[in-house]
Sequence to fold (491 residues):
Amino acid sequence: MSIGKRDLGDDNLSLDDTDMEILALPEEADTDDDDKMNLDDSSLTLVVDHDSGIDDESYSDDTDFNRSSPTLKTGSYTKWHEGDPLLRKIGLEKLNDRGYVNLEAICTDRTFGYPGDRALNAARWRAKYEVQIGLCSQIIEEGKKKGKYGKLDKFHRIHPIFRQDNWTSDDLLMGDESNCSFNKLKPVLQLATLLLEDETMVGYIFNMLDVDSHKEVTFAGVENRLRRNVYGFQQRHNLSGAERQIVWKDLCELSKTLWWTEKDMTFEKESFHAYTRGEQGTIEIVLDKRHLDYVCREVSPTEDAIDWKPGSDDDSARLRVMFNLATTMIHEVMHALWRNKYYPDYEPFYMDTRAAELGFQWEQLLYSGQIDNPTSDRGSPYILSISKWPSPGEKEDSPTILMSHKKWGSSNAYQEFAVEMSFVQNMFTDEFWAEVDRYGISKFWPRRMLGVRSTVVSEYWEAESPIVRGPTDGRPSSPDGADSKGIIDRH
Ligand SMILES: [Zn+2]
Fold:
C-alpha cells in the first residue's frame, strides 16, 4: 500500500478532528434512577474549547481528552466527583477500605525493572548503539554476577527519548546530579522506558510503522463519509531479532528529533494531559506542567481535594500522578513515532476498531483498557479507574471514527472499575517486572474487583442505516454480576 492512497480529501486535520475520545459521564442525579447516560442530552455534552490554545494552526494536535476528564460545558458538575459513578455510588470511604485510595506505606525500588532478560535485551542493544554512535564511551553493568542477570548502568535505565537534554524547562534541563527536580522525575522516566521497550508491545509498534502491511478496512458507506480510504494494522507476534532492532532503532532515532515542553493547561486546553505536534525532524510533546509540579516540584497533589476521613494522602496521590505521567508520555510517543514518519497522513485503525488513535489503542492493548483519573483533578487525589476504549461518546463528523457506538453493535452496558493501588505501586518494583518476564502481558491488566455498570443510551448517526455491524445489537455480552444499583463488587 502506498502512502499516497491516504488522501486527506478537503479537510486537513484540525483539533476538532480528535474529539472522539470524549467520555460521556453519566447524568448527575441524586435519585436511584440515575443509571442512564443519555449521550444526546446536550446538557451532558462534554466539550473542549476549540477557540483557544492552538499556538500554530498549521500544526494539528493529537490531543488527550480522556487522559483526563474533559472540561464541562455547564455548571452542573460542581460536585467533587464530577458525576463519576464509581466515586458517587461507592464513595471514598469504601474505596479506601478496599485499597483503592491511600497506601499505608509505599514500597518501591529505586532501580526497579531490570532483573530479567526481556527489558535487558532492548536496553543492552540500546547501550551498544549509543557507544557506536559516540553518545557514551562504555557500558557498565553494575553488579553483574555469573549466572545472574546484570543490572544495567543507571544511565541506560532511561531511554534517550526521555533524557535530560530533551527537556526544555530550566530546572529539568540544567540541573546536575544534585538537582532534585530531574532526580525526582527519574522513576517516571524509568517506568516510561520499561513500558516503551516492553516485549509485549514491540510488535504493535513494528506493524504500526510498517505501512506496507496495513490492509484496507471496508464498511459500507464509511469511506464515502470519511472521503478517504481507511487502513488497519494488526499487532505482530514473534518478531525476529532483526525486526525488534528496527523498532529499537526507530525509538533511538526519534530521541534525536523530539523534545518535551511544559504548559500550564489550567485555563486553555483544560481537558488535556498532553499533546504532540510537529512533523518529521521536529516533534514536540507538550505536557501539562501541573503533572511535573506534583511529581518533582514539591507541589501537593491533594491541595484541591475535598475533606473526607481520613483524607487523601499526598504520597499515594503522587504515585498515581507518576504512573499517569509515564503512561501519558508513551501515549504521546506513539503519536510522535507516526508523525515523525508519516505526517500528515491519518493514523491507521487497529484491525477494525471503531476509532483510530494510536495512543489510546496502545493503552487499550497493554492495560486491557484506559486507566485515568475519573475526575479532572490533575493531582489524582482520589483513585484511578479503568474503562474500555473507545468509549461510547464521540462526534459524528469525526474523520477518525468508522461509525456510531450503536451501529457498531457495542454493548449498552458501560463498565468502569477502580484500579487497586497495589497495581500502581507494583509498577515501581523489581518484583512486578520479574513477573512480567515470567507471565507476560497479563500482568499489566488490573483486576476488575470493584466497579459500576452504567447503561448507555446511544443513537445511530444521522446518515446511518439501522443495521448493526455485528450480531450483538447492544446486548451485554456476558453477565457481570452488577446489583440493582449497577455496582459490581467481587471482593
Ligand atoms: Zn492521543
